[in-house]
Structure prediction request, 347 residues.
Amino acid sequence: MKFSHPENLLWLLALLPLLGLFIYAYRARKVALERLGDKWLMMGLTDSVSRVKQVWKIVLLLWAAVFLLFGFAGPQVGERLKEVKRKGIDIVVALDVSNSMRAEDVRPSRLEKAKYEISGFVDKLGGDRVGLVVFAGQAFLQCPLTLDKSTLKLFLDVTSPDAVETQGTNIAEAIDEAIKAFRGIEKAAGAEDRSSVRNKVLIIVSDGEDHEAGIDAALRRASEEKIRIFTVGVGGSQPVPIPVVTGEGGEKDFKRGRDGGVVTTAFTEAALRQVAEKSGGTFYRIDPQGSTLERIYVELDKLQKQEFASKEFLDYDDKFQFFIGAGILLLVMESLIGDRKNKIKPV
Prediction:
């Protein structure tokens, strides 16, 4: 047996001084009566009071308190693994964390604006599983596909360009890492779940500065896995410098090339638009004043959601009602018992 609110059991300790108070009151009353006059005279005057019934009333009250407190503690028995059926799709968000995402042509920066949009998007998801891939010159899985949205948001909050050592914007590797994430959840699923055809969606959020090759090959692999790709662009079209922190004192400067000149970055949509069009998805541009990913959510909500099983937590049978019922019954019994002796009528 376990309790859902074990802290309520601490009130049981209060019953010990309460019992002591009953005993003290009983003895104090007895002493007070003796002081009023002759002991035998007082006993005769109070002879109609039943000491046995008084004791029973106290006992019933104490046991009623015990049962009620046990009920309020939420007793639970019958531990079992509960299988929760959910309907949804599998979504992987691939977030660009290259240095160019530090640019501040979108406030507070491209990366922070993207993280804000992703967080709001995740909040709207219901039974959908979602994972997070971060990429720059290389990609890795930051958070596997999960139903626990709060966990994913924790990983999202700590994401920064420092998370990836190799810089660049390798969209092809981000697609391949997402494919691995989808395969991983299918491998971990049961046979019945693997046999079901579930919609798989990849959302790539980037400033579009792809300097790597291999996108076409990655798109073919995604097509074989029946993955639909949406792309979201973030950043302005005008070249802007990339803020960096230099020195131990945290001084701010701009990224510079080998010649000492300031390196600039500008959003380019060509690669992102190409990826979306070739995979049956849609290209979006983050609106500095609105929520872009909310439009993707509306589109995803139209997709067929497959039912799948997720064994999530241990479940117990609540038994508080039996203890509460017993406590109330004892209180009723106590109220029906008087404190006078039963009178025997002469024949």
Summary: The longest strand covers residues 75-88. Residues 83-310 form a domain with the Rossmann fold fold (CATH 3.40.50.410).
